[in-house]
Amino acid sequence: MRALITSILVLLFISPLAYAEPDTDYFPLAEGNYWVYQDKVEIQDINGEFEVENKYIGEKVKVKRINQLRTLKVLSTETRGDFKIAKMQEEGTPEGIITFFYVVDNKNGRVYSYSDEQIKTILPNNKDVTIEGSPEYIFPLQAGSKWGDPESLERKDKMYFYYVERLEDITAPAGTFKDCFKIIHHTLPDETIQWFCPNVGIVKLEYRHHGTIDNLISELKEINLR
Question: Which CATH number fits the domain 2-224, given the four candidates 2.60.40, 2.40.360, 2.60.120, 2.30.30?
Answer without folding.
Answer: 2.40.360
